[in-house]
Design brief:
heterodimer, A: alpha/beta, Rossmann fold, six-stranded mixed beta sheet, four-stranded antiparallel beta sheet, 10 helices, B: mainly alpha, MetI-like fold, two-stranded antiparallel ribbon, 12 helices, about 75% helix, flat
C-alpha cells in the first residue's frame, strides 16, 4: 500500500534527470509503458503502452469496467490513496518517470490536473474555489489572485455568467456551471496536462455542448486526456482514440481512422453499439 | 341504469378482520404519541408554573434573580422581597460549560481527524470501541474519580482546597469528550470522498486537504458536536456537584469553591417544602436549565437546517 504521507514533500520543483526510455517520442508530453494496475489480485489495467502528443485531445473509450478510468487515475497517481491498489510499469511525463522516488507527488498533480465525473465544487465562494490551488501554493497578493480567477474563469467560459456573483457560494451554480468551475479550478494551477474523467456524463445536453466546445478551445494550450462513454463526443472532440477492453488497449489511432476504418473487428463492434 | 345493489349485499362493503388490525395499529401508535406529548407538556407546565411563581406569588424580583449575588430564599430583604440572587450559579454554570467546550472541542476534533484521516484502520479497531465504552460510563463514576484524583491533584498544585471550577471543568471535559468525538467523527466521515480527491488532484498535501476541505465542509457538523457536548455539560449535576465545592459565591478564581445551577438544585431539593419560597426558587433554577437546553436544541436545529440547504 502506498500512501501520500510516505512521499517526500518538497515544494521546490525537483527536476529529475531525463530518463532515456527507448521509444520516447519527443512530441509526446505523456507516455506510459507497460502500465498495469492491480486491485488486490484483480488486474484492472493490463500492460498499457500509450503516448499522448502535445496539444491534442485523446479520448479513452470502452465498455464500463474496462479500466479506462483506472488508467486515467493512475497517471496523476490518484490511485496511491486507494488501499490494495498496486501499479507496475512506467509513466513518463516530459521524460520523467513519475514513479521515481524523488518525484514530488504534489508537483505531479499541479502539472497534471484532473476533472472528475461529478462536479465537486468546494463549499466556498466561486472566487475561492478557483483561488484555492494558487493560495495553497503561496499566492497571497489579492490583485494577483483576482487576475488568476478572472483569467481562468474566462478560459473555462464561465466568466460572463458569474462575474457579478464571484463571492456567492459555488454550490448555488447549476451542474454544468459547477463543472466548468472545476475546470477553471484545475486550470488555475497552470497544468500542462488535463485529465478529464467523463466530465460531461452527469450534465444536460446544453452544458455538455459547452464543455465540448471548451475542450476544443483548451486544446491549443493543453494536452487533454478524456474518458468518455459517448461515441459522438469522442468523435467530436478528440484527435486520437484509444479503445480499451478488459484492461487492455485493443486499438489506438487517429479519431478519423478509428471511426471510419478500424483495424480490429471488436473496435468496430463497440463503436457501432454492439458491445457495451 | 341497473338496479342499485344494497350496501350490505356487495362484498366491497363487507367488514374484515384486516380493517380491525389496521385500526388497532393506528390507535396504538397514536396513544404512544399522545402520551409522550402529554408528559412533555405536563413537565413544561409544572416547571413554568412553579418557576414563575417565585416572581408572581412570592413577589421575587426578576432583576434580583439575574443580577443578585446572594442566595437565601428563606429570608426577605429590606423591600420585603425574597433574596434570590442566582448570578453566582449562572456564572458558574456558564463558566464550567464554556471552558469544558474549549478543552474538549479541539481534543475531540483532533481525535476524530486522527481516527478518520490519519489511521482509519487503527481508529476503527481500537479507538471506536474505547470511545463507545467511555460514553457509557455513568456520571457518578466520573464524579467519584474527580473527587479522589482530580481534587487532591489540584490541591497539591494550587492554593485552596482543590474544589472549584477547575476540578469541575476537568471532570466535565473528560465526560463530554467521547460524545463530542464520536459526533465529530460522524461529521468528518460524512465529507464525500470526491471532495477529498478533488483537493488532492489540485496538488494539496494531505494536511492541506484536511484543513481546507474536510474541516471546512464538516464545520456545521463539528459545531453541532460541540453544542451537544455543551448541552450535556450544562445539564450535568452529579459529577459537578461532587467536585465543585458548592459555595454560592461568584468565583474569582478557577480554584475556589463555586457552584452551578444544577449543583444548587440537587443540594437544595431535599431540604425544602413544596409551595414555599425556597422550593419555588429552586423551580426557577430548573426553569433556567430548561430554557437553556431549549436554546441549545434550537441552535442545533438551526445548524442542521443550514447544513441541508
Amino acid at each position: 500500500m502506498q500512501s501520500v504521507a510516505l512521499q517526500p514533500v518538497k515544494m521546490k520543483t525537483n527536476r529529475v534527470k531525463l530518463v532515456d526510455s527507448p521509444d520516447f517520442h519527443r512530441s509526446s508530453v505523456l507516455q506510459t509503458t507497460d502500465l498495469s494496475v492491480y486491485y488486490g489480485g484483480h488486474c484492472a489495467v493490463n500492460e498499457v503502452s500509450l503516448s499522448f502528443p502535445k496539444q491534442s485531445v485523446t479520448a479513452l473509450i470502452g465498455p464500463s469496467g474496462c479500466g479506462k478510468s483506472t488508467f486515467l487515475r493512475s497517471i496523476n497517481r490518484m490511485n496511491d490513496d486507494t488501499d490494495s491498489c498496486r501499479t507496475e510499469g512506467k509513466i513518463y511525463y516530459e521524460g520523467v518517470d513519475l514513479h521515481s522516488p524523488n518525484v514530488n507527488l504534489h508537483e505531479i498533480r499541479k502539472q497534471i490536473g484532473m476533472v472528475f465525473q461529478r462536479p465537486v465544487p468546494f463549499a466556498k465562494s466561486i472566487f475561492k474555489n478557483v483561488a484555492a490551488g494558487p493560495m495553497r501554493y503561496g499566492v497571497k497578493d489579492k490583485r494577483e489572485l483576482q487576475g488568476i480567477v478572472e483569467e481562468n474563469l474566462k478560459k473555462a467560459a464561465l466568466w460572463e455568467e458569474v462575474k457579478d456573483q464571484l463571492h456567492t457560494s459555488a454550490l448555488r451554480l447549476s451542474g454544468g456551471q459547477q463543472q466548468r468551475l472545476c475546470i477553471a479550478r484545475a486550470l488555475a494551477m497552470q497544468p500542462s496536462v488535463l485529465l478529464l474523467d467523463e466530465p460531461a456524463s452527469a450534465l444536460d445536453p446544453v452544458s455538455t455542448a459547452k464543455i465540448e466546445e471548451l475542450i476544443s478551445q483548451l486544446k491549443k494550450d493543453y494536452t487533454i486526456v478524456i474518458v468518455t462513454h459517448n461515441m459522438q463526443q469522442a468523435a467530436r472532440v478528440s484527435d486520437e482514440v484509444a479503445y480499451f477492453y478488459m484492461g487492455r488497449v485493443i486499438e489506438h489511432g487517429s479519431t478519423e481512422q478509428i471511426f471510419t476504418n478500424p483495424i480490429h473487428e471488436q473496435t468496430a463492434h463497440y463503436i457501432n453499439g454492439h458491445i457495451g | 341504469m341497473a338496479k342499485t345493489i344494497k350496501e350490505i349485499e356487495h362484498p366491497l362493503y363487507r367488514k374484515s378482520s384486516k380493517m380491525r388490525t389496521e385500526r388497532f395499529g393506528k390507535s396504538l401508535t397514536f396513544i404512544a404519541v399522545v402520551l409522550t406529548a402529554a408528559i412533555t407538556a405536563a413537565i413544561l407546565f409544572l416547571v413554568f408554573s412553579k418557576g414563575l411563581s417565585t416572581f408572581i406569588m412570592n413577589d421575587g424580583s426578576v432583576k434580583d434573580f439575574f443580577t443578585g449575588t446572594t442566595w437565601n430564599p428563606a429570608e426577605v430583604n429590606s423591600l420585603g422581597k425574597p433574596i434570590i440572587g442566582a448570578l453566582p450559579f449562572i456564572v458558574g454554570s456558564l463558566a464550567i460549560t464554556g471552558i469544558s467546550a474549549l478543552i474538549a472541542g479541539p481534543l475531540a476534533i483532533g481525535a476524530a481527524i486522527f481516527m478518520s484521516e490519519i489511521a482509519p484502520n487503527a481508529g476503527k479497531r481500537i479507538m471506536q470501541p474505547v470511545i463507545e465504552l467511555l460514553v457509557g460510563i455513568p456520571s457518578v463514576v466520573y464524579g467519584f474519580i474527580g473527587l479522589s484524583v482530580v481534587v487532591p491533584f489540584l490541591r497539591d498544585l494550587f492554593p485552596g482546597s482543590g474544589f472549584g471550577i477547575a476540578a469541575g471543568t476537568i471532570v466535565l471535559s473528560v465526560m463530554i469528550l467521547p460524545t463530542v468525538t464520536s459526533l465529530a467523527l460522524d461529521a468528518i466521515q460524512s465529507v464525500p470522498r470526491s471532495l477529498r480527491e478533488a483537493s488532492l488532484a489540485l496538488g494539496s498535501t494531505r494536511w492541506q486537504m484536511i484543513c481546507k476541505v474536510v474541516l471546512k465542509t464538516a464545520k456545521p457538523g463539528l459545531l453541532m458536536a460541540i453544542i451537544f457536548g455543551m448541552a450535556r455539560a450544562f445539564g450535568e449535576a452529579l459529577a459537578v456537584q461532587m467536585v465543585i465545592g458548592n459555595a454560592s459565591v461568584i468565583p474569582h478564581s478557577l480554584f475556589e469553591p463555586a457552584s452551578t445551577i444544577t449543583s444548587i438544585l440537587t443540594m437544595g431539593m431535599g431540604y425544602t417544602v413544596m409551595g414555599q419560597v425556597e422550593n419555588n426558587a429552586l423551580w426557577s433554577l430548573a426553569l433556567i436549565l430548561l430554557l437553556m437546553s431549549l436554546f441549545f436544541t434550537i441552535i442545533v436545529r438551526m445548524i442542521g437546517k443550514g447544513k441541508s440547504t
